[in-house]
Amino acid sequence: MTSLLDIVDQSETVEIKGHTLRVFPITAEGVGLLLLQFDSVRSMFGGTAITIKPEDLMLQAPDAVAGICALATTDRTEFAKKSAWLEHIEKANTRAAALPVSDQLKILTRCMRITFAEGTGPFVEMVKEFTAALSTTSEQGPPNGALGTTSQGQFNAALQTGIHPETPGTTPPDSSKGTLN
Fold first, then answer.
1. What's the confidence (pLDDT) of residue 25?
2. pTM of the predicted model, to two decimals?
3. 3-state SS string over 55-70?
């Protein structure tokens, strides 16, 4: 039987300024970070239909492009501590912000291809199935309201990830800065 330890790295490479970069898929932890940091990313996940393409990110979430590039080019498995990972992403964000848009688009395209290998449509369907399964397991709903839909029945990714900036002991980042600190 296969275990998670047997799964091979799912990264791809991209050539940027004569250097080969590894691009990694965005994980749930990475999505949570992006949702906390960037209002524009949160708004992309606010409706019932999610269509995420690299060009959509450029148009709808330009403040998040460098952050996504930084996240996608950082191997989470190389950092035992979350704080070291976040520090590295912040440094990479500064470099990613200075890249020409064509290089940023190369990174985003590879990232989207490996993050949503089956496309965003099947991803949204999986999230809906997961949410439905959770709502049928408890008549009171998910624990602590961690998962759910808005009153209009819209998918709300901030709730789906279980991130609650109002939770005591957590401070949401300042999304007006457009950085990942």
1. 95
2. 0.67
3. HHHHHHCHHHHHHHHH
